[in-house]
């Protein structure tokens, strides 16, 4: 397990000395999100001569895809737990991007702002302001305002969760959460793990957990394997994806991990709760799975009881649109039950000066995200009349890559739909909104009396989605419970993209720091 | 008598509730769901404390009693009715003198007021050193969408119908009297009376009915914190809020109202901007509200803001609602322009509209007594808007 020594790059100093001053100067472009899309976009824009802010809430660049412990936290992480080749794909690309960014940081064209959480953005006469809080010295929180002519939002996506009885027990995580624990700190979350949901993302999580000693006792894939045969063309045009899948298949076979298709986790129970589900029961101990009919209804008599101390569930991902919606950005049906930013062939949104790349335009993976990032950056260079435009041939190739990967993502979504009848797994007392403890029964009853037309209305009437997570977790599920099947989930507009202390806001509005 | 109420916000719901209770045949028409407009964008204020003596305060006092009745009838839990009381504090001694004078005028108009020397005894977490304030025990709070939904459900139990659709024109008969409303999908709903309860969109609806009234939007932001254990007992606001409510200034005004709710969150309102229907986020407004709230309650500095929302208050040029029959189109009644007071004034408005349709008093609303809010005040002779 050869740990790439400079996964985090050489820029170990987290905050260059002149950062404060640089933050105050207007730049050409703000890129929000330093995952594959944002890094690729920033690198291209910088190479083209622009001054760029690259902002990320994490302590290190890389996003979820290249998530890794920050440089300064490495000492505390056991060596064998450090990010390794089997967790991170295409580290060569990461290192190359990182080297480009580091070089531009030295020249002063790039201002890299890590641990900066963007809470809102606003359009101004000459571009955008991006309002963030600097948490690099947490718990201290300092408000920061960045100004630039153009804004590129590459904030990625987050796990789509579907509730089931017992999903709120300790030990039940999202598949993405399990992987983030592995990547971020080498944490193997449990000893006996059951994974469930749909989509190929379950496979790398299973392989990585098994590779680190966890017993993955089952992977429950809701889709039927034959679903792929209906859309072979995009798959054939993306041989790299084949190779990747084959690699996981080998790993899963080596660890004798059973993959059960057309199967779902339909409930979980906690320790000592056999037959007596009580408040405050302990960590998850048992899951029940069932084979699914074509519409997702559990088939009677197919239930299995599996002992497990950890459950990872992944139903695909939801584009993170929080910064885009308040700017009035147009949306498009992403084809997987979600909506995404509507963009043209140059990744321009419907708002002048606003660009989007990566999973905000629909979930499709890191390679697509990077291509979109580069295409978006070229549009920014063009629109700002920057000198350093790359050749048209390279751009055309990049756009072809985008088209090929988009087609693949659409085929993937069609092969791995949400089982339409998943709400059949819920009992009326299953919690749907964990923050506000709203049950499926409460949501169903406002739907039944006709007063709730969508998840926004359900929120007003039941408080589902009003708590700490603001419906990021329960929104897609509540949507499925009340909306027509063909209507994709559009998140509620959130003017505050991340919680921020009133004190930090108060100080930002009062430069004289008058706290009296 | 067939009544079509345009708008299923809090005012339309209250009109439907009272009209159906009085035995009228009611249809409520809205293009969207219940309370989806300005109703869902406010704090749920039922305030007497911010009102000057005059026709609006008269309606507010009636409305306050009718909120009590609605809570008795429908259950206070149904819409989180809470008679928590308001505390208005002065920031400086000269402000306190003005506040006391204001409160004395309100007391003369039968508002219950109590002068408070030590505001810390009312609100233990309030900033130290404030010179004093006035306690208004009648100020109260509801969750407005739940309230609109509850009133509408009660109206439906009394025979009212709710339809989704958009009114596009009035159908008139002899003497220009209204006989129905035409909807966007071509349906004509027969009506002897049509109530314009379209809130901020009341100006447009009035135009479509041939009875234009000037209703303009005034944008406001409300901030919502993370849930906390109870820290703030009343609706607390600084005395300059009163001045801002009544102000006609074009620019931004903020004077924060801070209060806890049953869900544990703290609501911080309320900015006022005249920017048309511009929905853009204004980070400067959020920062200003945050700063004012932290000055009133210093512990808020460490509390997280998790949400903000904004809406458009419907206001008339003289900042009074327009409630009553339109003299130009017989059968049209206006019930809009309540600005930031629509929740508080809704039941009174519903009762007054019902009384006007009946031609006799209804639940304490007397058409002969409440004349200060009639549409006539905007019209020159001949019916042209002033």
Q: What is this entry, summarized?
A:
The complex is a heterodimer of chains A (516) and B (386). Chain A contains 13 helices and 22 strands. Chain A is of the alpha/beta class.
Walk me through this protein's architecture.
The complex is a heterodimer of chains A (516) and B (386). Chain A is α/β, with parallel strands linked by helices and 516 residues long. Chain A is 29% helix and 21% strand. In chain A, the strands form 6 sheets. In chain A, strands 1, 2, 3, 4, 5, 6 and 19 form a 7-stranded mixed β-sheet that branches. In chain A, strands 8-15-9-10-11 form a 5-stranded parallel β-sheet. Chain A has a 3-stranded antiparallel β-sheet with strand order 12-13-14, with no helix packed on it. In chain A, strand 1, helix 2 (36-47) and strand 2 (52-55) form a beta-alpha-beta unit. The longest helix of chain A has 24 residues, at 392-415. The model of chain B has no long low-confidence stretch (mean pLDDT 92). Chain B has helices at residues 10-21, 55-74, 93-108, 119-122, 144-157, 202-208, 240-246, 283-296, 342-358, and strands at residues 2-6, 25-30, 45-46, 86-90, 114-116, 132-136, 140-141, 161-164, 167-172, 178-183, 188-190, 193-196, 216-225, 235-238, 253-260, 266-272, 304-315, 322-325, 332-336. In chain B, the strands form 4 sheets. Chain B has an 8-stranded mixed β-sheet, sandwiched between helices. A 6-stranded mixed β-sheet of chain B has the order 8-2-1-12-19-18. The interface between A and B is large, with 41 and 43 residues. Strand 22 (500-501) of chain A pairs antiparallel with strand 17 (304-315) of chain B, so a sheet runs across the interface.
Keywords:
heterodimer, A: 516 residues, alpha/beta, 13 helices, 22 strands, 21% strand, globular, disordered N terminus, disordered C terminus, B: 386 residues, eight-stranded mixed beta sheet, oxidoreductase (chain A), BFD-like_2Fe2S-bd_dom (chain A), Metab_Enz_Cyan_OpOx_G3PDH (chain A), FAD/NAD-bd_sf (chain A)
